Amino acid sequence: MSSPLDPQHAPVGDVGAALMIVDSRLKTVHDGRTGADPEQQALMEQFIASLGPEGVDDVLDGTCTLIYIFMTWLRKAHESQGKDVIEYVVPTLVGTLRMMPKSVPPEAIPTMAGLVVAAGIGLSPNLWREQYGDWTKEEMTPLEATAFLLAEHINRITEDPDSATRLITDALSRTDED
Question: 126 Cβ partners below 8 Å, 6+ apart?
Answer without folding.
Answer: 10, 11, 13, 60, 61, 64, 65
